[in-house]
From TrEMBL:
<dbReference type="Pfam" id="PF13692">
    <property type="entry name" value="Glyco_trans_1_4"/>
</dbReference>
<feature type="domain" description="Glycosyltransferase subfamily 4-like N-terminal">
    <location>
        <begin position="20"/>
        <end position="185"/>
    </location>
</feature>
<protein>
    <recommendedName>
        <fullName>Glycosyltransferase subfamily 4-like N-terminal domain-containing protein</fullName>
    </recommendedName>
</protein>
<dbReference type="GO" id="GO:0016757">
    <property type="term" value="F:glycosyltransferase activity"/>
</dbReference>
<dbReference type="InterPro" id="IPR050194">
    <property type="entry name" value="Glycosyltransferase_grp1"/>
</dbReference>
<dbReference type="InterPro" id="IPR028098">
    <property type="entry name" value="Glyco_trans_4-like_N"/>
</dbReference>
<dbReference type="Pfam" id="PF13439">
    <property type="entry name" value="Glyco_transf_4"/>
</dbReference>
Amino acid sequence: MQTADLRIALFTGNYNYVRDGANQALNRLVGYLLSQGASVRVYAPTVAEPAFPPTGDLVSIRSIPFPGRSEYRFPLRIQRSVRADCAAFAPNVVHVASPDVSAHHAVSWARKRQLPILASVHTRFETYPRYYNMAWGEPIIEAILRRFYRRCDALVAPSESMAQVLREQRMNYDISIWSRGVDRETFHPGRRDNAWRQALGIADDVVTIGFLGRLVMEKGLDVFSDTIDELTRRNVRHKVLVIGDGPARGWLEARLPDAAFAGFQTGADLGRAVASMDVLFNPSVTETFGNVTLETMACRLPVVAAAATGSQSLVDDGVSGRLIPPGAVHQFAEALRAYIEQPQLRLAHGAAGEARSGEFSWDRINQTVADTYLRLIRQKRAGSRRGQE
């Protein structure tokens, strides 16, 4: 059996209605699979005006706005018409990319038909409650996730550090790596544009600390702003550049009134914005990989990040950036000050990061997922034969 023989039914809670790192990876995966001759059918919530066109065939599943976060959709039980569509498509493997209601039903549908099931892990959902004063809910969410992932045949995680967390949480015993790639045409040092920086009020001789990502509290915006306050108290000259948008933008603008906000960027504009920073500060602990970290490294810039899943597999502490204990504001500030006051250190660590980013090729990475599909199909068929003997 070859990649071209694959027929994949992909269920996800967000394929294209709001742009994020997870659905960018899924769309790239589908594009690669289609280019190799595989058949893919995607089942996900849809909206009238999505953030970008979907790659491949997209079938809408029922959903409602997520309470308190209406830009997101909460998938519901997959309706009869979707089950009929999936049966007519006749997949030989099912891929679930978010542990929501529709995915639970998709797993049950696949298990009843003895189809292999692969789950991809894209974010640490169990950490979200701590950003909304509901940390008590983390063990409950972890237990729900464990039940879901154990009903799947295998998991793929975007980094070894995340895979290790999943093993420690006993989510599954078959966990492999589906890493992430970087678009070297979009992200490279040559994208830097001092005139663009100047238009945002950033002087050429001021070291710029960048934040890159969706502006939501679970990205560590409180730690980011507290650290910037600490630098200001220490009289360390700097400028903050925020790249991205989201429901917490107003909060962050009020919290950091002197920062430059570039808003949502994409394509070449995003590459220009990232390359025009001097150092990335990523305090988030929710990422399973850290696409923004890799994109920044490709632009020859150092990274100061929380020592958490994702960044730990990308940043070599003291070589291409700094890994700091989550929430350690004073240590974050000290690491940033070193890069601000020591340009040679900034250049050396940026060069090391760029070299490391060269190891991430999208085609090679996505073929590992195709190989996992093929392995699971072989294992399922071998198990069925043994059961008939």
